[in-house]
Design a protein that fits this description.
- The relative contact order is 0.18.
- Helix 2 packs parallel to helix 6.
- Helix content is about 85%, strand content about 0%.
- It contains 14 helices and no strands.
- It is globular and about 60 Å long.
Amino acid sequence: MSELPAADEPTPVEPQRKRSTAGALFVGLGIFATKIFGIIRQAVIAKYLGTTPAADAFNAASRIPNLLQNLFGEGALSASFIPVYARLRAEGRHAEAGRVAGGVLATLTVVLTMLVALGIVFTPQILPIVAGGLEGETRAMAIDFVRILFPGIGALVISAWCLGILNSHRRYFLSYAAPVAWSVVIIAALVWYGPRQSVNQAARTASWAFVVGAFAQVLVQVPTVLSLVRRTIRVSLDWSNEHVQTVLHNFVPVGVSRGIVQISNYVDILISSYLPAGTISLLTYATTISYVPVSLFGIGISAAELPEMASVIGSADERARKLRERLNAGLRHIGFFVIPSALAMVAAGDTMASPASA
């Protein structure tokens, strides 16, 4: 029987590479399912809301609290939480990993509760900053919809914490397929109520379905998450824990970088709000389709690599060498898939967009 490597020896490269490849496949499958249902969701929204002022109000409203999700959600939380949590697990420090997971969850819950409450109260003041061109009834509907949507965004950020736990335990498919539940709730609500409602009423129904779907997305992950951490997790505001502090400190630069990326989305919505009615909706429908290649391949490969890179142990030089190798290989894989698929989107974009804009 072969001996297991000692705790201070480098992690074997080949098993990690195989796990990473399998992980990228499962992430890709989960994202593929999510994107297919996302396109169906947008097609259903387009069918019942079209490019009406109600559609603009709904799409603008969903973008505003989305800033909160993007700042605190999957990208920022994964980049700051997974490396710390996965490394503690790789070192066999499972109890400490549980304390970190519980501390991050408690912190997220407190911060999000305050931000959601402030967002609901100050929506009339926030809306002109993000979509200042909306006026009259469209503006009133957008304010109403934003207030409805904010709790759902809080739930989606908690879903991102679940994703961090699942990815660290190499449970990739569920974490990235969970948004299917969110899309299904919105689709079902509009298909059921849409034919019997006015466009304005259907937009409000879509807003409430957004919130219910967000909680459904969390709930489908909870049983598996609890099975993985129920013996070790300790939920408390343990800000004195050095590893929790590391996660929070790392969160700041990552959050800032995510905020810079969101400037483009902010500018798009701001400019679109001053253009003719329907522009915001058309931009939203087009964006959903255009993000498919990056989401399917870029996120798939990077999400699978992150816990593997965080789990590399050994001497400093050995870790640096292995991290460079994994980073270079990951970038090559992303480029190999994303560039051809992006060109295919350019060639067949009108065909893909026609069902959503019908």
